[in-house]
């Protein structure tokens, strides 16, 4: 059986060798090497079977129904690690700063555990365990790993699915879990404002795009508080402004990039419409513009029945449940839960010796959580199978 020592070793091996989205080739090989000889486990990998070159689908069982799913993400971030751990990243500027190494280790443990149950005749269904690549980024086609896997049909027979995400700000023995919307719609935009440049001493001879920018920024910053209801979660952040190259030259163009986050589809549509309406001011003041909006992940929605099932498991394990959302971040598991009933748990894993948070160069977590997470995944899979068998009367 899998021990905490196995889980920690897997996690640290993965942590030392992180790979960015769509580049997880060695990570994929590592996962396969840990699972390839397990009884009752069939591995699917490659673009033909999974829709994408990286990642692994480990199918545990004989293919009989019910078929349920577990998911972990395997990619890392372009972050330079500053933890000083002996197992710190070997790749400069790349780090597992979001806990995906832990997620992968927990799912590796779950596959081993489920294989053991299969050998003993105690797995009365099939579990598809997805080691999903490219959660953190989109490719040139604007798609993430989850979308490619869904398009491949590899999960088309999965009846329900669950995932875990580590929370480095919540202590061990706690979890965030609630039904409904728990993470945000993610939209990004690029606004190019055009004017006519000239000498900084003679602004009256120009249409200054920096001045036009100063007119539009207050409107953008006001739309979430003035155009969306106060009880509707929404955020608009300007994250990059590019314009000018000299202290005495007014440029011809300013580029503004940012993100819009929302929970409901109604708020999502409203925010974009209001941004576009406010941009008319640029033309009224003599400038022109282009506005490109990219719709990213939809809001993550936890299915009510699957959430209740997970609540029961957490209560039985003595985990304190905080019925709150996960915030305004995005998660491409949302593409999966839009099609397959599912839910995600944010599992407390705070490193009590180091205060840190997700996507930080000091990111760390309490490795004791790995065993708890593995058990929750296994018990969740078995509970989903039982739920479907009870529903089907078998």
Automatic annotation (TrEMBL):
Residues 187-276 form the Peptidase M20 dimerisation domain. It holds the Pfam family Peptidase_M20. It is an enzyme of class 3 (hydrolase). Mn(2+) binds at residues 98, 100, 136, 165, 359. Its cofactor is Mn(2+). The keyword Plastid does not apply. The Mn(2+) ion enhances activity. Its EC number is 3.-.-.-. Keywords: Hydrolase, Manganese, Metal-binding. InterPro entries: Amidohydrolase, Bact_exopeptidase_dim_dom, Peptidase_M20, Peptidase_M20_dimer. One of its GO terms (molecular function) is hydrolase activity. It comes from the Bacteria. CDD domains: M20_Acy1. PANTHER family: METALLOPEPTIDASE, PUTATIVE (AFU_ORTHOLOGUE AFUA_6G09600)-RELATED, PEPTIDASE M20 FAMILY MEMBER. This is Putative hydrolase YxeP. It comes from Halalkalibacter krulwichiae.
């Amino acid at each position: 059986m899998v021990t905490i020592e196995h889980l920690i070793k897997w996690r640290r091996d993965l942590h030392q060798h992180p790979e960015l989205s769509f580049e997880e080739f060695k990570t994929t090989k590592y996962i396969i090497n840990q699972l390839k000889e397990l009884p009752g486990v069939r591995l699917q990998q490659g673009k033909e079977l999974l829709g994408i070159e990286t990642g692994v689908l480990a199918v545990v069982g004989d293919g009989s129904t019910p078929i349920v799913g577990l998911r972990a993400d395997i990619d890392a971030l372009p972050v330079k690690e500053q933890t000083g751990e002996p197992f710190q990243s070997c790749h400069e500027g790349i780090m597992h700063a979001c806990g995906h190494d832990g997620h992968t280790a927990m799912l590796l443990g779950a596959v081993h555990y489920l294989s053991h149950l299969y050998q003993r005749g105690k797995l009365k269904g099939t579990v598809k365990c997805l080691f999903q690549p490219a959660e953190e980024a989109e490719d040139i086609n604007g798609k993430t790993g989850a979308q490619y896997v869904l398009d491949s049909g590899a999960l088309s027979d999965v009846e329900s699915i669950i995932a875990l995400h580590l929370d480095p700000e919540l202590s061990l023995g706690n979890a965030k879990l609630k039904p409904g919307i728990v993470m945000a719609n993610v939209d990004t935009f690029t606004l190019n404002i055009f004017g006519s440049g000239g000498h900084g001493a003679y602004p009256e001879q120009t249409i200054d795009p920096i001045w036009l920018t100063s007119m539009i920024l207050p409107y953008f910053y006001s739309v979430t508080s003035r155009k969306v209801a106060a009880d509707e979660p929404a955020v608009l952040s300007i994250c990059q402004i590019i314009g000018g190259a000299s202290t005495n030259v007014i440029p011809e163009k300013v580029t503004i990039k940012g993100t819009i986050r929302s929970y409901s589809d109604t708020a999502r549509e409203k925010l974009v419409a209001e941004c576009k309406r406010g941009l008319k001011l640029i033309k009224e003041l003599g400038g022109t513009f282009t506005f490109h909006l990219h719709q990213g992940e939809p809001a993550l929605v936890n299915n009510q029945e699957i959430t209740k099932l997970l609540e029961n498991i957490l209560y039985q394990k003595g985990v304190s449940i905080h019925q709150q959302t996960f915030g305004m971040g995005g998660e491409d598991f949302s593409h999966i839960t839009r099609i397959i009933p599912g839910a995600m748990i944010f599992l407390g894993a705070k490193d009590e010796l180091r205060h840190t948070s997700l996507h930080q160069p000091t990111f760390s977590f309490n490795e004791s959580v790995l065993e708890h997470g593995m058990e929750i995944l296994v018990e969740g899979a078995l509970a989903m199978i039982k739920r479907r068998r009870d529903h089907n009367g078998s």
